[in-house]
Amino acid sequence: MQDSFDITTLIFIVLAIFVVWRLRSVLGQKTGNEQPPFDPLARRDAPPVRPGAAKTDQDNVVRLPGANGDGTGARAEPATPPGERWKGYAEAGTPMAATLDEIARAEPSFDAGTFLEGAKAAYEMIVTAFAQGDRKMLKDLLSKEVYEGFERAITERERRGEKVETTFVSIDKAEMAGAEIQGKNAQIVVRFLSKLITATRDAAGAVVDGSPDTVVDVTDVWTFSRALGSRDPNWQLIATEAGQ
Predict the structure, then answer these.
(1) Cβ atoms within 10 Å, residue 216
(2) Is residue 31 part of a domain?
């Protein structure tokens, strides 16, 4: 081996030092204050209070999806005129409109359209989870009482060796059918009009209920509830009934 560098090696060393210096000058160095990598599944916290804005007890509340607030936690009324605030969802002057006003005062970020979109998503998830016997999914979406009823039905179905096949064709309509506040809990009734293909098969694979080839119209009336001011933005299903 040679004891000294030849000119080519020396040139490469100089170039390597120059490249490292340029990278450090462009990308900077770690300071300990860098933001972590973006996680699309991470829960988002409420936006920080603007400098100089007064803090309130509501600053710790995670707002419902569809927030229109300014992040200060102030209980300001929506900018929409009261008579038009729930247009398309509840008639002005009705008890349901008054209840929605009360919900919006407690949760300024409450939005009727966003709520119904979430209710439709929950409806499909719950119906599908029930058909598949997915207890974990149901437990996260149902109140304790409703979950126990669903779980008993799944257990009985499994005991008979039956399986349910359910395919969503469409949710044709989801509309608010009522609203009330009981204590600190807001409750909203939603009527769903949907089209499903559903069939129950016995242990031998024979259809014992429904049809795997027939689309049926289904009407369900479900009641969702949420504790106003809760950090948890999710609404739970607390009652179900077949609609007319």
Answers:
(1) 12
(2) no
pTM for this model (two decimals): 0.66
Burial 98-134 (b: 16+ CB within 10 A, else e): ebbbebbeebbbbbbeebbebbbebbbebbebbbebe
Whether the CB-CB separation of 120 and 237 falls below 8 Å is answered with: no
CA distances from 201 to 11, 59, 124, 198, 213 (A): 77, 52, 21, 10, 13
Residues sharing a CB contact under 8 Å with residue 141, sequence separation 6 or more, in sequence order: 122, 125, 126, 129, 234, 236, 237
Provide the CATH number for the domain around residue 207. Answer: 3.10.450.240
Instruction: Specify the DSSP class assigned to residue 42.
Output: S
Nearest-angstrom CA–CA distance, 218 and 187: 22
> Domain for residue 187, yes or no?
yes
To the nearest whole percent, how much of the chain has pLDDT over 90?
Answer: 61
What share of the chain has pLDDT > 70, as a percent?
A: 65
Structure tokens at 59: 């600053």
H-only helix segments in the chain: 7-27, 95-106, 112-132, 135-141, 144-160
pLDDT one-digit tens code per residue, 45-85? 333 333 333 333 333 222 333 333 333 344 444 456 555 88
Structure tokens belonging to residue 229: 């001011």
Total structural domains in the chain?
Answer: 1
In the block, which residue shows the tokens 């699309």?
A: 40
- Domain containing 155 equals 91-242
Are the C-beta atoms of residues 224 and 188 closer than 8 Å to each other?
A: yes
How much is the CA Rg of the chain, to the nearest whole Å?
A: 28
